[in-house]
Amino acid sequence: MSGGALYVYAVTDSFPGTAPTGLHGAPLRAIECGPVLAVVSEHAVAPDPGEGLLWEHERVVEELMEAATILPMRFGTTVEGPEALIAMLEPRRQELSALLERVRGAVELSVRAELPSVTEPVDLEPPPPGPSGPGTAYLLERAGRRRRGEEAAELIHRPLAALARRSMRRPSGGDPRAFKAAYLVDEGTVEAFGVRVDRLNATLGDIKVSCTGPWPPYSFVKEKPQ
Amino acid sequence: MTRDREQEERRREGQREAWRTRREASRERQERGVSRALRDRDVSLLDLVDRLLDGGVVIHGDITLAVADVDLVYVGLRALISSVETIERDMGVSLSASGPSLGASAL
User: Fold this and answer.
1) Chain B residues within an 8 Å CB radius of A57
2) How confident is the model at residue A78 (pLDDT cuts 50, 70, 90)?
3) Which of B33, B48, B100 sits opposite A58 (nearest CB)?
């Protein structure tokens, strides 16, 4: 279809019989590429970008996830047509099949926390022997804060990672106070994970740990763990 | 035994509730747009943006198609998100959601 575009939602290995509708109510269909299928909808003009489209995209992917094992695509993945799509998927068939096995039966849970230690006064360690001035004290204090932040992050991350198939700390975007992580958790373990988050909130005092999900496994679809 | 079951059902109900809240938030946003008072469930938006714009399978490689103006979406949303995060920090707004919501997907 000339002028049109295929919007790609996910890669899967089984296209659900009762598929959800796509963006703007467009019907979904599957493009086969060997053992993997790409779920797409066709659009004469590109969907209008915006926050609403993010949630709409998420709805489609979540509904697919309820019916099949999927690898979500990066938002906005749009190709010219089936041939272009197959040409891009073909060399990665094996990788995509392996990734589908990695996430089968699991969901992604997101955890955030704000680490308070950095904002609190930090006891300075005694300065080391040798020339020492305000610069040294500053560097020591900064190192101390960073270490305490990292210790707090580990208090959250370690017990949660122990429940997960895989886990990854996400970059905090330059804010040393921000803790962000993603956990790939078996569907049957989601509740236990929630209980553990509750327990962390009960024991960590001023650190508030928040958890959202289940999400499609957005953070676990790269060949190598990040 | 019966009490355990009751507790279990309450827990499940709570999780379903959280799940609904997220979906409703999504629907509301589509209707009202983004300019609203900051609420706890904005955490879901932060997580959504992190995942949709940084995660997922990337197939384009060198072939970048500018069909969906995604770069523009990205820049606009990043600005929105960083302002939300800053507000959260400055106002000490708590990040809530006491546990993962259990959607229909986690059977």
Assistant:
1) 52
2) confident
3) B48
Instruction: Say yes or no for a CB contact (<8 Å) between B45 and A51.
Output: yes
Decide if A88 and B55 are in contact by the 8 Å CB cutoff.
no
Asked which of A72, A103, A134 is the last residue of a domain, the reply is: A103
Q: A68 and A45 in one domain?
A: yes
Q: Do A72 and B55 touch (CB under 8 A)?
A: yes
Number of structural domains chain A divides into: 2
From A50, A72, A103, the end of a domain falls on A103
Report which of residues B68 and A162 the model is more confident about: A162
Q: State the SS3 of chain A.
A: CCCCEEEEEEEECCCCCCCCECHHHCECEEEEECCEEEEEEEECCCCCCCHHHHHHHHHHHHHHHHHCCEEEECCCCEECCHHHHHHHHHHHHHHHHHHHHHHCCEEEEEEEEECHHHHCCCCCCCCCCCCCCHHHHHHHHHHHHHHHHHHHHHHHHHHHHCCCCEEEECCCCCCCCEEEEEEEEEHHHHHHHHHHHHHHHHHCCCCCEEEEEEECCHHHCCCCCC
Of B51, B58, B105, the CB nearest to A107: B105
Q: Tell if the CB–CB gap between B30 and A8 is shorter than 8 Å.
A: no
Answer whether A74 touches B (CB < 8 Å). Answer: yes
pLDDT tens-place string over residues A177-203: 889 999 999 999 999 999 999 999 999
pLDDT tens, position by position, A211-222: 999 999 999 998
Structure confidence by residue, pLDDT tens digits, B33-87? 332 223 334 668 888 888 888 889 988 654 444 444 555 455 556 655 665 555 5
Q: Are residues A141 and A191 in the same domain?
A: yes
Q: What is the pLDDT of residue A224?
A: 62
